[in-house]
Amino acid sequence: MNTENIVKELNFKAIRSSGAGGQHVNKTSSKIELTFDLENSESLSDSEKALLKTKLSSKLTNDNLLILFCEETRSQHRNKDLAIKKFIDIIKTNLIRPKKRRKTKPSKAAIKKRIETKKKTSLKKALRKKPKFD
User: Which of 112, 83, 100, 61 lies closest to 17 in space, CA to CA?
Assistant: First the structure.
């Protein structure tokens, strides 16, 4: 995965932001909408696209577009940088494949230790009972 090529494929749109800013907020478009077309991306391989489709299925639109918004600051440029960082973090974390689980057997010593502790606890609990007098 080449992050420089992926960043070139991103589309940005500036929107009017809500929140702090006073009268200035009504005049400027500081909120950034980042869109990434996962289906038509040339910088991702087919296996990476398939993995991202499954992992990001809740965040993707019907057209396999990933849309992120950023309106944390009043600066359009800082919001754009933050949106790019957020996007790259999402992509990197979701491209990590989990390790396959290998089946293992407990060692003979571990089995023996487990049985001994079970015997000790059962003896401890048996000694708590009232003795039977026949």
Answer: 83
63 vs 86: CA distance, rounded Å? 21
DSSP bridge pairs for 69: 33
Q: What is the CA radius of gyration of the chain?
A: 29
> What length is written for the chain?
134
Contact predicate 127/74, CB 8 Å: no
The pLDDT tens digits for 64-94 are 899 999 988 888 899 999 999 999 999 999 9
What residue spans define the domains of the chain? 3-94
Contact at 8 Å (CB) between 40 and 82? no
- What is this structure's pTM? 0.69
Distance CA 97, CA 88 (A): 16
Q: For the domain bounded by 3-94, which CATH number is listed?
A: 3.30.160.20
Residue 131, classed as helix, strand or coil, is coil
Extract the tokens encoding 87. Answer: 């996007």
CA distance 53 to 60: 8
Interhelix angle for 76-94 vs 46-55, to 10°?
100
